[in-house]
Amino acid sequence: MKLPYRAAGVLLHPTSLPGPHGIGDLGPSAFHFVGWLHAAGQSLWQWLPTTPPDAGGSPYQSPSAFAGSPLLVALEPLMEAGWLHESAPPPSDWQRARVDFGQVAPWRLASLRQAAQGFSERATTDERAELAEWAQREAAWLDDYTLFMALESAHDGAPWWEWPLPLRRRDPLALSAARRELAGEVAFWTFVQWCFDRQMAALKAYANERGVALMGDLPIFIAHHSADCWARPELFHLDEDDHPTVVAGAPPDALGPEGQHWGNPLYRWDRMAADGYAWWIARLGRAMQQADLFRIDHFRGFAAYWAIPAESPQALAGHWEPGPGRALFDALQAALGELPIVAEDLGIITPDVAQLLADCGFPGMRVLQFAFSQDALHSYLPHRHTPHSVAYTGTHDTNTAQGWWQAASDPERRFAGSYLPATATDIHWGLIRAASNSVAELAIFPFQDVLGLDASHRMNIPGTAQGNWGWRFDWSQVGPEPGRVLGLITAASGRGPFELLGR
Questions:
Q1: How crowded is residue 347: how many other Cβ atoms within 10 Å of its Cβ?
Q2: Residue 142 half-sphere exposure, CB side, CA atoms within 13 Å?
Q3: Catalytic positions, please?
Q4: pLDDT tens-digit profile of 463-477?
Q5: pLDDT digits (tens, 9 = 90+) for 60-75
Q6: What is the C-alpha separation between 275 and 273, in angstroms, rounded?
Q7: Overall pTM surpassing 0.90 (yes/no)
Q8: Which one, of 260, 248, 216, 221, lies nearest residue 397 by Cα?
């Protein structure tokens, strides 16, 4: 669906939704949240990446750039279809607690295996035909991913560069033998991905019918232990033992004073260019099936990226390397048409990045938490926004609005308090109102800011490995007031139905 010129939305990853199964998913609570957004006059729901997360829950270190997260597959539709009988209910404290990925992931996968067995035994002819047709249509990425996951299980979770050499090198005879021997496991992972796509399509249709667009998130990099890196190692900077020679990260900036060491393998952009960026075309094509628009992560990395020697644990050891630039996006647009992209242009933005953003015509991000330094001319201040941009109160990587206020310096608080105006009790509404009144085409607010929650509710602290990605809320925390006030602000700023002012 196409968004209205002025629109507003909420940033909330589906894993943060309430529900009885340990983690939010694409089930009933997601549909309920769409209804909440619609009632509050919101036109957009922004997510983090929906690809499979790593063991710590990070969706930015995925074993696949194409697959959907098994943890997002809702169990209720599988029960309704008659494939799953919930014989072992989850612990009661999973209803509201933060996500414990170490406990939740094995339980959810066990439930999905029961559902796959139920499908094998009880699926109708039409359901089997639907799965088979879908698997054939998605074979270009699905075949590698499902075999990769089956081989990972067969090797007790060992990374692919530790598998036997014929499998590491993708010897055709070895792969054929593995497909035969692991056919049951391959079928399981195929079933899971089919369920994910069915549920994603149903939720997107439901949201679009109610005037709510879905905004996905496309990480620039993928994990070393991934189906993509195993299937196409020639597209990455790897040595003869399949280990990265350089890895991704970022130099020091506001989100990471010591820089950030992400550890992802870096692309061989020369080889990607040689085949017309086919891998990226396929990747964005799939992303565009699942969302109406998406944020593309770390946009500055397409102009130049921070390359860290693989042997160094310090981000400061890195250096800049040129990215693919406009050639990549020209190829994508030629193959896919208009690209519904919001560019994450935070961090160190040099003239080459600004030029690439202008050449591509993508809107960039303006995060209000970064605006109130002692520089009264900061481009993130609402009165300095441009129409072709997206105003945020904060992101998944920043503190909550309340947490930011508590941690801000006295000069920042005085500046923000006078500008908005706001105090400690209503700083979240002050930032939301300022973002909404901006000339930016889109205004987006993390749900924690809509609820006025403190720093203990933030989603991620960049540069830390533990305790992230697990935040969840419960509907009892919400009540009627946040939606009512958000609706009033949205209507008054011309981003939602004017009728909401009568509430």
A1: 20
A2: 21
A3: 297, 344, 397
A4: 788 889 999 999 988
A5: 989 999 999 999 999 9
A6: 5
A7: yes
A8: 260
